[in-house]
Specification:
The protein is mostly helical. The chain has one domain: MFS general substrate transporter like domains (Growth Hormone, Chain: A), CATH 1.20.1250.20. It has 19 helices and 2 strands. Strands 1-2 form a two-stranded antiparallel ribbon. Strand 1 and strand 2 form a beta hairpin. The chain is globular, with a radius of gyration of 21 Å. The two termini are 34 Å apart.
Length: 433
């Protein structure tokens, strides 16, 4: 059956995985360069927190517009624009000689990455049948830990061999190289691809039109119709909680191991890489489990199981990590915490497709906007807690508590059901059934 249908969609999914990888390579080098930058600029933990957080300010601004533009005009145009823009400011990062200038550069970089991420998911929604959405989303998002894990040793080698500045100069060219491959091999929609089979296009379209009882010709809803949906915002709020812990790990873990646990940069790179090596497998596993649970229990319950379980166990493991007597045990528990945290992402990023496949870009933008607010708060709050208390553990307690709160929201308040539009009313009087 699959041989007849073809596998061109999986080549597109692989290219989107590579784009995700580069997104997170370019944003995570700041955390690896953090100890050297703090010494070079004489920054306090709070000042480094602000320099790191600035990226997410720009990132938050363009999430929803990026999703809307991709839904309307196609993901390729948005991704090309965003990739070139953010790469310029990766290259310029070492020239942020003052904290204010560094923050402006990082905000500008965030603007470019911010429009690109929802565009990736808008493109992905066009290429997958709903029954494969969890598996495809999990595979694409495996680029997150893969990008971070790859960055750790490469960035460490560049810093120790040349300088922390060299990391930004080298990584600035990764996205433009990816664009050359996408320009040759990628397309916004399956029907636009020159070498895809008619059978595969029909398979994708049929799979998009049957789930949830929706037609494959869903309308492009207005911003008001989508942004007024309480259920979407509650799911996005739970995603905010997951992202708070995710960005705490991403921005502070190497510095925690160096300054909080007293090890050197090389050892820190090794221990910081472990959670992301494991997450390479838990991202797609989470997507697979989301599809299986949805098939067995329906979307409303099935898409919520892994966030509820994953966030709960993640928070517990992180609390246990703070009590670990040795660096090895602490790193192992943090790795387990991150594994269960990333297990949730396949569910979160298939929820927009359940709400509305046609409008998945803007709905993803709603999720990632709140997720980005967490990215703004987590680095700064962590730095403030460390400065005020002198204890890294207190910052980890807060991260664990936020994760547990996200599980409670998902279990008690969230509903994952399609937006249903009355067919005779083009102004889209809709309800969430």
């Amino acid at each position: 059956m699959d041989k007849k249908v073809g596998k061109k969609r999986w080549m597109i999914i692989f290219l989107l995985f590579l784009c995700y990888t580069i997104l997170y390579m370019d944003r995570s080098i700041m955390s690896m360069a953090g100890p050297a930058m703090m010494e070079h600029f004489n920054w306090s933990p709070t000042e480094f927190g602000w320099a790191t957080t600035a990226f997410f300010i720009g990132y938050a601004i363009t999430q929803i517009p990026g999703g809307r533009l991709a839904d309307r005009f196609g993901g390729t145009k948005v991704i090309v624009l965003g990739s070139i823009f953010w790469s310029i400011f990766v290259f310029l990062t070492p020239f942020g000689y003052t904290l204010a200038l560094m923050m402006l550069i990082r905000i500008a970089m965030g603007l470019g990455e911010g429009i690109s991420l929802p565009a990736i998911h808008s493109t992905l929604a066009s290429w997958v049948a709903k029954k494969e959405s969890g598996k495809a989303t999990g595979f694409v998002q495996a680029g997150v830990p893969f990008g971070i894990a790859v960055t750790m040793p490469i960035a460490t080698w560049l810093i120790l061999t040349w300088s922390w500045q060299s990391v930004f100069y080298v990584f600035a060219f990764t996205a433009p190289i990816w664009l050359l491959f996408w320009w040759k091999l990628g397309r916004d929609k399956p029907e636009d691809h020159p070498t895809i089979s008619k059978e595969e296009v029909a398979y994708i379209k049929a799979g998009q039109g049957t789930a949830g009882g929706l037609s494959s010709n869903e309308p492009l809803l207005t911003n008001k119709e989508i942004l007024s949906k309480k259920s979407i915002w509650l799911c996005a709020l739970s995603y905010f909680c997951a992202n708070y812990l995710f960005f705490l790990f991403m921005t502070w873990l190497p510095t925690y191991f160096v300054n909080g646990r007293g090890i050197d940069l090389t050892a820190s790179a090794f221990y910081s890489m472990l959670p992301y090596l494991v997450a390479i497998f838990t991202y797609p596993l989470g997507g697979y489990l989301a599809d299986k649970a949805s098939s067995k229990f329906g979307n409303n319950l099935g898409r919520k199981i892994t966030p509820i379980v994953g966030l709960s166990i993640s928070g517990i493991f992180l609390i246990l990590a703070t009590q670990a007597a040795t660096i090895g045990v602490a790193a192992g528990l943090i790795t387990a915490s991150n594994a269960f945290l990333t297990l949730t992402m396949g569910s979160y990023f298939t929820m927009p497709i359940v709400f509305s496949q046609r409008n998945a870009g803007i709905i993803t933008g709603m999720f990632t906007t709140l997720g980005t607010v967490a990215g703004i708060l987590a680095p700064v709050m962590t730095g403030l807690i460390i400065d005020l208390s002198g204890q890294y553990n207190y910052a980890l307690y807060v991260g664990a508590g936020v994760a547990l709160f996200g599980a409670i929201i998902m279990a008690t308040l969230c509903s994952v059901k399609p937006i249903v539009v009355k067919p005779d009313i083009s102004s889209a009087n809709e309800i969430i059934s």
